[in-house]
Amino acid sequence: MVVPSFYDPVIIHQLRELLSEISSASKLPIMYYNIPSGSGVSLSPVELASLCEVGVHYLKDTSGDAPAFTELLLSHSHRITAFNGWDTLTFFALAAGAKGSVWGTTNLTPGLTTQLWETLSVKGDLQESRRLWMKIWPICKFLEGRNYASGVKTGMELLGRETGGLRKPFQLLEGEEREELRGVLEAAGLETVQ
């Protein structure tokens, strides 16, 4: 997975040159991490699809731009395989035909997210998928409302999975936020530890 520089945004021809060099040197298919809010690089669906010309086969889309993501899925899937990367848009993305999702919430809800994939993407059971999503979505919303990595790792620890914490300056959630996350996890039917 390749993400553009986070310090100074690159322009499209510079990005294409970099991706081409990585592709040539690695001989591996590339997944491009589209995260405009972090990288400052905002590409149109046509520009994103054109990255297939320089070795990009896959795209993790964390733009939060549902119309652009829909265009990628419906008009450019023959050029690039787009995966959703915005947790609260996962239901929409799968219903729209995404081949999958790259998201942190599934670290906390692997059983529920597997069931969501099976019911929505494989079986097309919209009613059961909505029932599952009503359990998952509050967790996604919680995580997106604070430092994401802190939320995911705290959630994993609340579920009894050691994480080793976070790199400084970030920390696991404490106090009210930690207990709020515990409540959201338990409301989804997940068993937490003290």
How does this model look, in words?
This protein is mostly helical. It has helices at 12-26, 36-39, 45-50, 66-75, 90-96, 110-122, 126-144, 148-158, 175-187; strands at residues 30-34, 56-61, 81-84. It has a three-stranded parallel beta sheet. Helix 4 links the parallel strand 2 (56-61) and strand 3 (81-84). The longest helix has 19 residues, at 126-144.
Core attributes:
194 residues, mainly alpha, three-stranded parallel beta sheet
Summarize the structure.
This protein is mainly α and 194 residues long.
| Approximate helicity band | 40-55%
Distance between the termini: 35 Å
Rounded mean pLDDT score:
96
Please tell me what the overall shape is: globular
Number of helices: 9
Q: SSE order, as H and E?
A: HEHHEHEHHHHH
User: Would you report the number of β strands?
Assistant: 3
Unreliable sequence segments: none
Question: If you compute it from the alpha carbons, what radius of gyration comes out, rounded to the nearest whole angstrom?
Answer: 18 Å
Helix-strand makeup class: mainly alpha
Strand proportion, as a percent range, falls in 5-15%
For the report, how would you describe the main beta sheet? 3 strands, parallel
The main sheet orders its strands as 1-2-3
